[in-house]
Amino acid sequence: MPVEKDNVYGDHISHKFNSELMELKTEFLEMGGMVEAQVEGAIQALIDGDSDLAEQIRGRDKLVDKMEIDIDEEATLIIARRQPTARDLRLVISVIKMVADLERVGDEAKKIAKLAIKLSEEGQAPRGYVEVRHIGQHVKVMLQDALDAFARLDSEQALRIMKEDKRVDEEYQAATRALLTFMMEDARNISRCMSVMWVLRALERVGDHACNIAENVIFMVKGEDVRHTSVEEAERVVGR
């Protein structure tokens, strides 16, 4: 486990409570690693036209769902047994919120896998794969960095992820405009290009969920909710 940058969660009198919190964090990071692999595999399946890999990604979605339920139950039990306060309560509540974002990332990977299968049957689209690879790499790094920020309780890194989300939105909009222009010029490829557009939308949503995780990291560390605020306001919170 990486060293925490912000030492806001110290040891407790109860060693059992310490181990419960550590286990909760470990399970969350394990789930994060799984959904990272789901996203990467789904993108690879699409680019390679690998329907077998895409089917594997779809099949693993149930395991992601189960992990969400298990972590939710563990977090609920910690609240019931320990009645945590202040920083510990923020950690447990944040995990409950963030695990829902991870589950939705898994759902987006499943969507991409389904579209990969569709395109492998119809034939690859003539445009959009460069954009898929580029935006896919961008959001994968965001997700990795968000999980790392959680592991190290690094609010500054979390802030950087929030800033990256705007860049992903801009890249997504540019890619969508390019595909729409191409479809207007050649209507024969509308169906396959639309599938690629849905893939790009799914990737943009992965970036949104990574940003949500980053916002929760800031809440855990600083005790202030930066959801629905500007990046400038989040900078002020992190800088305090």
UniProtKB/TrEMBL annotation:
<dbReference type="InterPro" id="IPR026022">
    <property type="entry name" value="PhoU_dom"/>
</dbReference>
<feature type="domain" description="PhoU">
    <location>
        <begin position="132"/>
        <end position="217"/>
    </location>
</feature>
<feature type="domain" description="PhoU">
    <location>
        <begin position="29"/>
        <end position="115"/>
    </location>
</feature>
<dbReference type="InterPro" id="IPR028366">
    <property type="entry name" value="PhoU"/>
</dbReference>
<protein>
    <recommendedName>
        <fullName>Phosphate-specific transport system accessory protein PhoU</fullName>
    </recommendedName>
</protein>
<keyword id="KW-0963">Cytoplasm</keyword>
<dbReference type="InterPro" id="IPR038078">
    <property type="entry name" value="PhoU-like_sf"/>
</dbReference>
<dbReference type="Pfam" id="PF01895">
    <property type="entry name" value="PhoU"/>
</dbReference>
<comment type="function">
    <text>Plays a role in the regulation of phosphate uptake.</text>
</comment>
<keyword id="KW-0592">Phosphate transport</keyword>
<comment type="similarity">
    <text>Belongs to the PhoU family.</text>
</comment>
<keyword id="KW-0813">Transport</keyword>
<comment type="subunit">
    <text>Homodimer.</text>
</comment>
